[in-house]
Amino acid sequence: MAIEKQRKLIAQIIHAKPSEIFFTSGGTESTNTAIHSACRDLKCTHLITSPIEHHATLHSITHYSQMYDCKISYVKLKENGHIDLAHLERLLAESKEQCLVSLMHANNEIGNVTDIISVGKICKTHNAFFHTDAVQSIGHFQLNIEEIGAHFLSASAHKFHGPKGIGFLYIKGGTNIKPLLVGGSQERNMRAGTENVAGIIGMGKAIDMAYQDLEQSRAHILSLKHKLKSLLEETIPNCCFHGDLADTNLYTVLNVGFPQSEKTQMLSIHLDIAGICVSSGSACSSGAQGISHVIQHAYPHSKALPIRFSFSHFNTLDEVEFVAKKIVELV
Question: Model pTM greater than 0.85?
């Protein structure tokens, strides 16, 4: 009863049917399920994505393309890191195979938002299946899955202050696929294993709260992002910013490029010591070495050292000013 209540709530928020919502362990499992099912069950032999997707998508596409002998194509990027939708249309028009398009809604590192409604229309025109990674945007943007037209949508609770280890996968009604995990009849035979009831309830509560306070939280977070950007521009004039900074994009991240030096090479470590959490890429890859693949592909000629700052409605103006002051001291 408790599980079905949360399923109905989530479905209502994204304008889906409760029967189209399946609970998973998070975004990575949801994305794996979608891509694996597209290859195995929907007979997609041409997988189309972008080079700046989350590794949950990129690695899944590489893995399952090898397993099912699929072709992979990468959509080109524009100068500002946005997806080139005209190139996507050309790829689909020229393809003779059944295609799966997997493109994220909001980029987790540079914050660019893709027009997934247009992507959905392009996919429909060319009879392609469409998966969107909405992990960064659920809880931060109003999404209407009917308008988007996706066959699959991945989401994860911890991105909107819910528990870790729980998420959901939207599967469009009539999409005939088999489960990734077998051995039980849970989730209407779509995901074997005892349901994480506490996690599901926590996710439902978190998503409900996120959308009740959406506009107020957005305004507060945007003010913090604008403040940090202006403070860094004033005090570190040779810094730059990665991604489209329009307010219509992901307002919870600011990716700053610092000039390369011995001090900036150690900046993220020194900020961590000061109690300030930042990352040089995806938080899921924070232990990895080297420049983020997103920056490498979106800004191939950039010499700046990228550091991502993330904001939530729990942060304050005082904290932003403290961060800016500490950066100036360290740089």
Answer: yes
